[in-house]
Each structure stands twice: as C-alpha cells, then as structure tokens.
Amino acid sequence: MTNDKDSPPADPGNYDAYFTSKENDLRWYREMLRIRRFEEMAARSYTRGKISGFLHLYIGQEAIAVATKEVLEPQDRVVSTYRTHGFAIALGSSPGACMAEMYGKATGLVAGVGGSMHFFDRDNQLWGGYAIIGNHVPVATGHAFASKYLGDDGVTFCFLGDGALAIGPTHEGWTLAGLWKLPIVFVVENNRYSMGTPLERSIPVSDVTVKAPGYNMASDRFRVTSVAETAERLAAAAKLAREESRPVLVELITYRFRGHSMSDPAKYRNRDEVAESRSWDPLERTYNALMHKHGMTEEALEELDDEVVAEMEAAVEFAENSPVPEPSARFKNILVEES
Ligand SMILES: Cc1ncc(C[n+]2csc(CCOP(=O)(O)OP(=O)(O)O)c2C)c(N)n1
Ligand SMILES: [Mg+2]
Fold this sequence. Notes:
By secondary structure, the chain is an alpha/beta fold. The chain is built from ten helices and eight strands.
C-alpha cells in the first residue's frame, strides 16, 4: 500500500482529481448532507431539553461514514465510538429510529435504552457505538476473529479517535489482530483533539502510522477531502485485509467543526485553524464541485437541501410523537444468572 505521509495535500480548490461523475458526487453530497442536517436538528432538540445525556456531533467528518458505506460488503461489520450517528445514517438506519433513540423513546434504534452513545443496528452492519474510549478495539478484534474462524470472508472496520491511541485496550486489540493475522481495518479518525487535548500532548509521534509495523499492520494515511478518495483508499485497505487476512491501520486526518460535545465551546482552538480546516470540508467541496464542475444551479442544490431538511424534520416529529419505553424495558437484554 502507498503511504503518502510525505506528499503535500492537494489544493482545496482543485476539483479534478476526486470529483468525476455527477451521479456519484450528487449521491454522496446528499448522503453527507443527510448526516449534517440530522445532527443540526439533534443539536436543536438538545438545546430545547428534549435530549438528555451527552451528544457528540460528527459535523465535518461525514465523508468518512459515507465512504465506508461505499466499500462495505454485506458480510462486513462496523464497530465505532460514541460519535456514531453519522455511521448509522450512512449505513442505512432510519433517521426516525436514530432520533427516537436520542430522545429515549421506545421506537429508537435500541428501544430507547442506549441513547446517543450506544447506537446498534445489526441489520445495517453497525455492531455498536461504544462510549468507553479504546475499549471497543478488542471487541472489534473479536468480530474479526469470528469472521476468520467462521470463514465468512468478512472484514471488520473499527473506527477510533486519536484519543484512543494512548489507551491500553487499543494496544491489546492491535496486538492480537497482528498476532492472529485478522481481517480488520483500524481507522483512526484523527480530528486533532481528544476533548480539548491536542494530539501532540497525548502521544509522542505525530504520524500515527509509524506504529503499524510494531503490530505487523500495513498502513495508509491521508487527509479526508472527498468521499471518492476516502472510499478508494479504504477499499484498498479492505482488499488487503480480506485477501491476505491481515490487519491494516488507516489514519484519516479530519476535523470536527463543533466542540467535543454540546457542552464544549471549543475555546482551545483559534479561528484560523477552524477556517483552514473548513477549506477542506468534503461537504462544502462537493457542493462547489457540483456547481463549478457539474454545472448545477444554486436553486437545484437548495431544493435538494429542502428535501433533506424535510426528511430530518419528519425524524424529529417521529421521535417527539413516540412513546417512552415501558418501565420493564430496562430489564430487557440483561443477563441474569440462575442461582
Ligand atoms: C476510558 C475513557 N476515558 C475517558 C473518557 C472520557 N472521554 C470521552 S470522549 C474523550 C475524548 C476522546 O477523543 P478521541 O478519541 O480523539 O475522539 P473524538 O472525540 O475526537 O471523536 C474522553 C477522554 C471515556 N469515555 N473513556
Ligand atoms: Mg479526536
């Protein structure tokens, strides 16, 4: 695999390399927009006091989830973190069920008992969002072991934040994946911060992929600026994992435009940094490519936006009108040993 850590990033205004067919660009734009509008509405509901607990938005990172959907085979599995709404929407979960989950309603993705940080939708290949940093890495490694053991030809995609890199279970999961040559792609979504702590204050290297050889993993590293490139390179990683049964580490350089959670005003970063990162926003770049490369009008794109907003408003309405779970629901899916 190539590892272009030394190559300079592309010009954000250059739409030639990764914006090619109008059909694809439009489809991906719509999918990224669905995630963004869904989350903006979730944020509004949160500030209105309709959603309790924590709410971590994926705004800025949507292209990663959309690209993942693009490369998944039906037997593949996705394991993710607490910043997981984008994956659910991209993989095919109903926005109504996702919103209802955040509202703690019985119609939610996991019947209202999980909330924002514990999405799960097996039918759509989402084997869980996990709230405890890094602790899902051995879980994902177990999924990859299951695929190898069963011979189902599946690849597990395990997403983790840069904050998980200094956590013990990440090392344990990576070690077993390397030792047992498991078909798994570990994708580090490096958005520069874990809460307010920048990467340079949490690990001693800035290039995460230098860790890969120590676990016998192949690696790749690039900045996320389009769905097309992200999908192409994730597909290459998955091919290696599937065909050679070996783990691959992919570091994605990305950015979250909102604070860590709804209660974080993100004062640890300055305007220039945010503006620079915004120039790489795959959603914004795809919007520009649709206009400047594919000749779409502002009105047509506004119409599409209105459709997406209507879909997400319906999701909010569904959540608001859904019943709360029966009190007995809190005992469902809990294992009680017979004495
Ligand atoms: C083991 C553990 N320690 C601390 C926390 C509190 N915590 C929640 S999110 C977070 C930061 C994680 O940052 P990162 O992995 O970079 O993911 P991002 O939020 O940037 O997506 C921390 C420390 C936790 N959930 N689990
Ligand atoms: Mg982070």
